[in-house]
Amino acid sequence: MGLKAATAKELALDLAYDIIGSIFYAMGVYTFAKMGNFAPGGLTGLALIANHLWALPIGLTTLLLNIPLMLLSFRILGRRFELKSIKTMCVCTVFLDIVFPRLPAYTGVQFMAALYSGIFLGIGSALFYMRGSSSGGADFLTMSVKALRPHLSIGMVTMAIDLVVILLGWPVFGNADAVLYGLTAMLLTSVVIDKIMYGIGAGALLIIITGRGEEIARHINELIGRGATELRARGSYTGETRDVLLCACSKSQAYLVRRAAQELDEAAFVMVTETSEVFGEGFSERPPAQPVKPARVDKEARR
Which of 49, 129, 29, 134 is nearest to 87 (CA)? Predict the structure, then answer.
């Protein structure tokens, strides 16, 4: 019963993210990119071009164009990711082809359309990624590259893939502005994705120098359930031996950790630094290690 309830809750959460993400995504594509006459990139950009040329439905065209990419990336990304993505794409299609065509269209300045298109596309895509899914299209290529090269930025990989599609907008829409607006939307999408994705994994590292390390570490654990690494160090100025605690936590917990240290030792020296992402137990899952072939290291470095 507990397992079924957990599975139902997970599915409900996935669906909620799909719906909210699809609203942002469809708004970025239909309300702003389509009405602004530019292609933001990816297969959705190709679908927008097809819609401009032959009036084909954007969502359905994107869904059909995804089929070969799904087949090519199946072994790399796995069944779970692709099934989740199919669900997300179906929800996106509903909003793109049924819901948003019935809503008021944006008729303002094209540059503003590009800005809002990039922001909303970034929010929608990030929400999909956070649940282990995607809106399809170039995302299958993006996530495949990310799986093979986890150190690469998702935003930068997306930018490289989308550039080709954006350039096609020049002859299709008949002006260079379509490329400029597409690039603007693409850059904003990449920035928003990275900010949301890495903002979720961002945290704080507190370095606490004190004479009561063991007590403070215990108090931190009792207060917020975080552990700390205790080191012994000697001050070069005083020559005294002190405890040094290293505690990684979320940004929202940093104040509580600092307060826990100062409650037990008012003279504690506390340094708070920001980390872009934290991997390990209690934080983000570690990316798979990539094997290095020693014989080719120098050659790879020169490339």
Answer: 134
